Amino acid sequence: MIPELRPSDLRWRCDEGDCAFKTTAEVEPLSGIVGQERALRAIELGLDIREQGYNLYVSGQPGSGRNTSMRIYLERLAPTLPAPPDWCYLRNSKEEYRPRAVELPAGGGPRFAREVESAVAHAVDELERLLESEQIASLRQQHLDGRQPIRDRVTGEIETQARELGFAIRVDDGRISPLPLDDKGNPLNAEQFNALPAERRAAYESGAAELNQRISQGLVQLRRLDRETAEGLRALELDAARQTLQPIFDDLCELLSVEEGGEIDGYLSEVLADLVERLPEIGSFDRPAAPDQPPSRDDNRQRLLSRYRVNVFLTRERPGAPVVFENSASHYSVFGRADYRVSGATAVSDHRMLQPGSLHRANGGFLVLQASDVFANRGIWEMLKRTLRGGEIRIEPPGEPERGMPGQSLSPEPIPLTAKVIVIGTPGVYQLAWSSDEDFRKLFKVKAEFAPDMDRSDESLGHMASFVRRRSDSEGLPAFDRGAIARVIEHSARLAGHQDKLSTRFADLAEIVTEAAYWRGRRDGPGSVTREDVSRAIAEQDYRDGLFEDRLQRMIEDGTIRIRTDGEAVGQVNGISVYEVADHSFGRPLRITARLSLGEGEFVNLERETELSGRIHSKAFLSLVGYLQGHYGGERPLSFSASLSFEQIYDEVEGDSAASGELYALLSALAETPIKQGIAVTGSVNQVGEVQAVGGVIEKIEGYFQVCRAAGLTGEQGVIIPLANQKNLMLGDEVVEAVKSGRFHVWAVESIDQGIEILTGLPAGRPNARGSYPARSVHGRAIAHIESLLERQRHFAALLNPDPHVEAKPRRRARQG
């Protein structure tokens, strides 16, 4: 006799008396991470080792608390670590397309920018005053006065030669031309010149040619003199400007404690030199910025000042290491970008328009990325690999610059990478990345795997109450009483699918907590949340997600899907399948049928033949074929062909949980013994007839119970499950009450023999010393049927081949599906 499970075996109940509080108002909020000791040890290792490649992949199913746990852990760790340095981008006067990156002490970037901006503004003011001062005017005049004698000498020599040749000199717009004179020294006009005798005109023309040659030589000397004068004036002004600015920048270096010969010292020297070189521009502030624009002194001044403005690229506002969660990663959001502004028909950029990405902001600390973002965009993953391998962060466009007009792109100096990168994703993504990308294995050497559940203990039960308190505090929800906490804990065990486990899918539990508080308010206004409120929240959630489930149920009830829950039938049994619609799963029965005919040991699975069978189901089918061959084929040939089918199933069949049902249907057909149609079965089976554990037993039992309840509970209905699945039962109250009252049953079996006895009411049969089974047993009847089929096969063979001396046609090899 196979004992059926008792009501107490069908679920674990949390005793409210174990709660040492009346409501969660008396409980401390959860402040740490629970149930993930293995993951925490891996996280601690990955974060403590600073060598290259020890980045983390945090693996777990959505809702398992991966993100929340990492946030809690990092927010505790980060303040204990030193703050990383600030980084600024500066104009590179030698290569403007390559802005210079400089490192400053943590928090020092803004002060550095302010002091540089103030010093440059002061320097420009001083240069403007210098240009308007009597000092510079006096120096200019002294310089001009010093050059005038040279000019006078050159022009004097030209005038002397002109007089000797009978010419005067005329100066017009910087041009020197000879003018012929008469005997009295008066200039000749054209009419007078033409009236002169030919010989006299020829003499003048010869003298003019000689004089023009001397004038050309003089003009060359004067132009050289002008150039030297201008250069001297510029050198004089630049020297005066340099002397004016040097004290300002000396004071700035002292104020900032700049190391002599260091990077900052070199930059400030370049700024000083560039300001000196731009002295003419400073002197023309009052001129228009463009020919068609009015003068704007302020605009011109600001344009110059912005040239030297420091881009405080990264600065630390809080002590400790930074923690950045990037929840919507793109190339620019992670690796930074260079913005552009429109200037005419061109897009231009400079060091001031560089923007940091999350990798920059996390530098010196921790960057948390989502695997779905990283691996969905191949460009992000490839760039992240290059960054981690090279140990530096570069701002680069993703391929071609994404802009609509031409412009010069920047190539800023890279910043050394000191961030620890943490990628959060599912185990499937980890396995795919690990197996397909060698770089992933080198760069993410630590996997922290979050378990979907934790052991049920007094400590973990207390953690659940503390979790509810934390959720209530964060959402402003009322307190939960003992009964409500007990119901939440029971629901957690149901999510875990194990009587001795609690789920770590805290996101799902948080939804139930929030919705239970809502129904408490709808039911009776303010007050503590009770067990009834939590049960209502669970039921309402199932109802919201149950549209497809209800439609399938109605199709069973109206006969569209044929399911019998009473009577008996040969070669037919109710299996149970699990449907998954998004995050909602439920069970419903399906009819498994088996048919036999004369044959030569062929076993046909219709789903496999029509390519509707997955690999696991195909393997399970071959296992039951092995059972039949080993059980019945050792003493006699299997003189039949068998076909199996899942009726009214049109999608792919996967999994091995229907294997026991298929075998029961075949045994029924072989033994010509009817199966009770009120009993549904689930379970995997191996070749020796042992029934093995399967998944989804809660959904399967409750799904079949709903079908039986709709058809009318007779007390003869129930479900056979593997004994190994008993610990997975966390059935609903309605099913437990039906079992308690004898209107429904749940049996747990270890072997096919136990299951077939429940289904047929006959003993499975045990062989005697000669290997024979009792005639009224299932196996005995099956063997008798096989032998009768063999005898009929021999009879037909004799009719087809009456001459016993003629060798019979060789038998075909049996096809096994």
What does this structure look like?
The protein is built from 27 helices and 29 strands. It is an alpha/beta fold and 817 residues long. The protein has a seven-stranded mixed β-sheet with strand order 22-23-21-20-25-28-29, sandwiched between helices. α23 (659-671) packs across α26 (752-760). Residues 400-407 and 810-817 have low confidence and may be disordered.
Catalogue the unreliable spans: 400-407, 810-817
Q: Any idea what the radius of gyration is?
A: 48 Å
- How many helices? The count is 27
Q: How many angstroms does the end-to-end distance come to? A: 35 Å
What is the mean predicted local confidence, pLDDT?
Answer: 86
Shape: elongated
Biggest sheet strand order reads: 22-23-21-20-25-28-29
Into which percentage range does the β-strand content fall?
A: 15-25%
Structural class: alpha/beta
Instruction: Bin the helical content.
Output: 40-55%
Largest sheet, in brief, is: 7 strands, mixed
Extended strand count: 29
Describe the structure in brief:
The chain is an alpha/beta fold and 817 residues long.
List keywords for this structure.
817 residues, single chain, alpha/beta, elongated
Secondary structure topology:
Elements: H1 37-48, E1 56-59, H2 66-77, E2 86-90, E3 100-104, H3 109-132, H4 134-164, E4 167-172, E5 175-180, H5 190-195, H6 198-255, H7 263-277, H8 279-283, H9 297-307, E6 311-314, E7 323-326, H10 331-335, E8 337-338, E9 341-343, E10 346-348, E11 354-355, H11 358-361, E12 366-370, H12 371-376, H13 378-390, E13 392-393, E14 415-416, E15 420-425, H14 427-436, H15 438-443, E16 446-449, E17 453-455, H16 458-475, H17 482-496, E18 501-503, H18 506-524, H19 531-545, H20 547-557, E19 568-570, E20 572-581, E21 584-598, E22 602-605, H21 606-609, H22 615-632, E23 640-646, H23 659-671, E24 674-676, E25 679-681, E26 684-685, E27 691-692, H24 697-711, E28 718-722, H25 733-740, E29 745-749, H26 752-760, H27 778-800
Parallel strand pairs: 1-15, 1-16, 7-12, 12-15, 20-25, 22-23, 25-28, 28-29
Antiparallel strand pairs: 2-3, 2-6, 4-5, 8-11, 9-10, 13-14, 17-18, 19-24, 20-21, 21-23, 26-27
Helix pairs in contact: 3-6, 4-6, 6-7, 17-19, 18-19, 22-23, 23-26, 23-27
